[in-house]
Each structure stands twice: as structure tokens, then as C-alpha cells.
Amino acid sequence: MNGMKLFGFASLLAISSFVALSVAQPVPAPTTPDKLCSVDTSAAFQADTVVAAPDSDGFVSIFDGRSFKGWWQNCLSSHSSDKTNGAIWKVDSTRQAIYAMSRSGSGGLLSTHKRYAHYELMFEWWPQYGNDGGVFNRYAITSSSNVAANQMVLDYLGASGVFSYYSEAGFPGGRNGRPWSYSSATALTIPGSGGGAGSGGTPDINDWTKQTSRKNLITGYGPADIGCAASGCVQADYLRLWNGSGWMQVRQIYYGGLSTTQPTSVTSAGDKIHEFTFMRKHYPLNDTNLSRMQRVDKDTAKWVTVVQDSMVLTASQVNTYQKIAPFAFQIHGGARYIYANNGGKGSWYRDIKVRTLDSLGRPATLVAVALNPASKKVQYDLHVVSGALVGSMPFDHLVTISDLKGRVLQEYTGFAGANISHDLPVYSGVMLVKIATMRGVQTLRVNQATR
Description:
This protein is mainly β. It has helices spanning 43-47, 208-211, 235-241, 315-321, 364-371, and strands at 60-61, 71-74, 88-92, 97-101, 108-112, 119-127, 131-143, 146-156, 165-168, 181-184, 187-189, 248-256, 271-280, 304-313, 328-331, 347-356, 381-385, 388-393, 397-403, 408-414, 417-423, 430-437, 440-447.
């Protein structure tokens, strides 16, 4: 992690018990025609995206809820047997959501025009059991029918599992990890069905119990914080934390693999890619009315760790596969995915937004605030008690701890939440604890000798 510890908090969700009965997805009432296959070659297309102001945490919307502005369907992968129409992608402007489904077995990639390097992606997702999809990170078109990517899988179907990583179409690293695998929508197996982390990765990427048995590098949560035993989360915890009958919120952090000075090249020793995936119940379990667009306060739900992983690539691998590139939502091709003439209802996506990170995984907007000498001075509900930074924070934040000479002792990002408690580094002397959010900066002066 380049010496940087990432850490964050959110408050506890009062979670209702899992309801085994599936709540039917709404019948789509799309207001746009299908997004058919196209080719993104124009520089103007590549710059195209939704114009939106950053929210209070620096996330920018990339889906306007009304159109496919900023998006195109890539049908060059092997998933698109139909190279003209690809998969079914429609926008329902009433529900401000994208409706996605295979077209009689033909899949496709709903891709951003804009290219990204290091980023944090957040979206809401409501899949039908049987969904076979994914997020293609920084993908590379390697032929007229092949797209290689470091895929975050969204496989909500038997013998697979959501939210891990897979080396799609020859992407290096050998990823094939599933934190759990399904035998039905309400029954799963831990460890999952994946083949493991591959070269240079986390050995337990396909074991959610082991993933959750240790404190997450970003959230700072251990198993007890999300209601699991010290040994980690099991099937009963999954059924408690997963909404199998409505909306889930997904958060993916993806960074690294690029030089900090030349973003399209790397050092001779290669570079490391970091991947984190989180989920949470963002909507009430019994809220099935998509037209209401009901929100709950983000601080009522904790982000639950699914995967924390990293892998090292060689210089040539990074130069081939990890240039600044689009990302895409994938619909898998083939008969196993539910599609229109097989009675399926596909998946819904909405509230899609992105936050740009730097090469160390820090939110660029928060770094800019922290480095700006004219940043507004504010006061947060955070203070130091017994050598720990404790309190509440309604915003995502960047904390930089330095000595009086400006040397950084520790740095971490955190999610908004309550009941924050973070141990300060062991240091003999005065430390400056700078807390930056989109609102402004607060600096605490801490004397280690008297703490």
C-alpha cells in the first residue's frame, strides 16, 4: 500500500431478517430504444460524459437517469453473438434506472466513453437470480471478438458468486475468485467455487469467511462490527446482509498498475493493482416500488467487506492491459443467462457515480482540499482520546498525520459514519492530524508524550 494505511467507518445498519420469498422485479417501462452496438473511435465520443457537480463526498454522477449520454454498447467481445444489436440495454426514465438483459443469448458491454485510470465506482443494483454479469475494469480490445479485462463478477447464479475478480479473456494475474457460490438464491457455499487468487494475489479471495475474519484496510471493520463471529462471516450472515429481493448498493475501489509520472507506462519492475469491493443494504427490504426512488440515509448502513485484494503485474502486462481505459457493465452471452424468450427479467442499475482516485487510492477531490492552503477551516466531531481519533463524521474523509517537519507518519481515507475510532501511530513528540473533506480542513495538534 506504499506505506499508506486506508481506513474508514460508517454506522451500524439495523438490519431486518432475510425474507426468503423473492420480490418480483417491476415490469420495465423503458422510455428509450435499445442501445445498439457501436464503435467508439471519435475523440469527442471518448470525452463524452454526463455533466454533474460532485456530491458532498466528491462523487460525480455518470448516468443522468434519462438517456445513455456518455455510454455506448461494445459488441466486440465474445459475449456478443449478435454484432448488430448485442444485449438489451434500455433506460426507464420514470425509475431513473437502466434495464439490462441478454438478447436471446447475445450479451454485450455497456461501456463508458470516458477513460479512467484510478477510480471508485458506486451504483445500485437489483438482479434477478440467474444474472450473469460483471464490471469490466480498464478493459482492452485485443481483437474484433475479444475484450480482456480485470472483471468484478456480478454472477448471481448457481456455482458462482458475486463481487470477486476474474481474469477475463486472458487478462493477466490468473484471477478466478468467488467469495461464496450459490446453489440457490438463498443457499450458498463458503469457500466459493473460484480457483483462487492466482499469481501474487490474496490467497483467500474465494473465501468470504476468511476475508471478513480480519480488519478491512479501508473500512477498518472487523467481523464483530458487522455482526459476525471472530472467525468471520458465514451463510447466515450473508442472508442477513444481502438483499435478495431488491436493491443492493455496490462500491468498488480500483487503483494502481500505472506509473505516477507517466500514466501509460510503468517502471521496469511492474506495478501493483489494488481492488476492494463492498456491499450494503441501501434500501428497505420491503421497498419494491422503484418509482418512489426511496432513499435511506447513507449513515444507517455499514459497508460490508466482500473482497480486498492486490496483484502484481509485469511492466509489459501493465502496458498491454492497464492503460487509461473505459469500464463497462457486462451481460454474459450464452444460454445460461436469463433472457427474454426464457422468461427472465434481467437486472436493474441506477445512481451510477464515480470518484477519481490518485495512484495511491486517495480521492483526488479530498487530496486537493487537503493541499489547498486556502481551504476553509472547519471543526468536525472528532477528537483524540487515549491515543485514538474518535467521534462521528458525516462525510468521507482523508486523514494525514505528520510530524512538525511535515513528514507523513500515516495517511488513510475513511467512509462517512459514526463511532469512529482509529489508533494514532506510535511516535514520540507532537503530531499534526489533518482531517479533510469536501467541506474543509481541521487540524488537531496531538502530543504523543501526554496522550
